[in-house]
Each structure stands twice: as structure tokens, then as C-alpha cells.
Design brief:
By secondary structure, this protein is an alpha/beta fold. It is built from two helices and three strands, in the order E-E-H-E-H.
């Protein structure tokens, strides 16, 4: 699963089992004026606390994904 310039919604549900989900890729813009990068980073921490494997990357862009993040996404997809 890939999240691009987005965020994670926390749920109060004890039955989230990371074994049932794929690895996670999250890319975010460091200058995002819509979804602050801090919100994306909190989502990464939340997913990691739940046991997910998360690859996080960022670029110096606004509310979009930069070229280097798209390259990393392509490489990440090729490893799955």
C-alpha cells in the first residue's frame, strides 16, 4: 500500500493485525500546505507502533509527490 501526500486516520480498534497487510510506502511534500508533514510523520509512527513495515520519504515540494519520491516508489514496488 502506498500513501502519497496523505495521512493516516487513527482508529481505536485492537484487532488491527499488520500481518494481514502489505508493506507500506509513504511519500510526502516537506512544504505541504494542505497536509503538514508532521501529520504524515505521526501516521508513520502510528503504523510502526502497530507493527507495520513503513518506508517514508519526502521531497522539498508542496502538496504533491516529488520526482525522487516517485523514483523511490518505483524501486519499492519492484521489491515486492
Amino acid at each position: 500500500m502506498a500513501i502519497l501526500a496523505g495521512f493516516v486516520i487513527k482508529v481505536d480498534h485492537n484487532e488491527i493485525l499488520s500481518d494481514n497487510y502489505p508493506k507500506m510506502f509513504i511519500a510526502h511534500g516537506e512544504e505541504d500546505e494542505i497536509v503538514p508533514i508532521e501529520k504524515a510523520k505521526k501516521g508513520v509512527l502510528y503504523l510502526e507502533e502497530k507493527g507495520f513495515s513503513v518506508l517514508f520519504t519526502s521531497d522539498n515540494v508542496g502538496h504533491k509527490v516529488g520526482v525522487s519520491a516517485m523514483r523511490e516508489l518505483k524501486e519499492w514496488i519492484n521489491t515486492i
